[in-house]
Amino acid sequence: MLRYFLIFFFIISGSISNAEIKDKIVQNLKDTENLDFKFEQNINGKIENGNCTIKYPKKIFCEYARSNNKILVSNGKSLVIKTRSSYYRYPLEKTALNLILDKNFLINKIYDLEERIVDNSLINFTIFDGDNEIDIFFDKQTYDLVGWQNVDLYQNFNITFLSSIRKNRVLPQNLFKIPNQN
Questions:
Q1: Domain ranges of the chain
Q2: Mean pLDDT across 148-154
Q3: What average pLDDT does range 150-173 have in this prediction?
Q4: Phi/psi class of residue 158: alpha, beta or left (left: φ > 0; alpha: ψ in -120 to 50)?
Q5: Residues facing residue 133 across a β-bridge
Q6: pLDDT of 59 above 80
């Protein structure tokens, strides 16, 4: 009988810590209005990096380093990728960023998902929504969002890692303005 009690105790203890992890991630998301960070993005083996700012809900501005003045901007409705020689505009709702940039969506999903610990330093959740499968990663110590991976509109495998994360900074008013096509 004692053996069954101990097994039950360990199962319950594990469940409490899992719930605690989710609560801490959710509280951290609730407390975050915006964040800026350095990123490294690997799309089918092509690595790019730069700086981004996210403002919830659904706004992002990224400047890529050592590229054609490449920027990525979402105003919450449209997503634009612009370089010196090209301009692409997509409805945000057709991209995985529509989900990743929606903290209320993430919060609701996290409560329903099973988390996995990766390398004893990351907490991973896999989100399935329509045609999208997105793995999101949070730091196990800070509970900050530190990356995601998904398949993009063109069926490219995309991995994005975040570093040097700063939260709730004062942002310029027009940062998320969609640039004109030149």
A1: 17-119+128-167
A2: 88
A3: 93
A4: beta
A5: 128
A6: yes
CA Rg, the chain, in Å?
Answer: 18
DSSP state for residue 59 in the 8-state scheme: E
Q: Which amino acid is at 150?
A: N
Q: Report the alpha-carbon distance of residue 32 to residue 127 in Å, rounded.
A: 21
For 16, half-sphere exposure in the C-beta direction (CA atoms, 13 angstrom radius) is 6
Q: What amino acid is encoded at 20 in this protein?
A: E
d(CA 12, CA 123): 20
Per the CB < 8 A criterion, the answer to whether 61 and 52 are in contact is yes
Q: Is the CATH code 2.50.20.10 the one for domain 17-119+128-167?
A: yes
- Strands of the chain (E only): list them: 34-43, 46-55, 59-64, 71-75, 78-82, 87-91, 116-118, 122-129, 132-139, 145-151, 157-167
141 CA to centre of own chain: 17
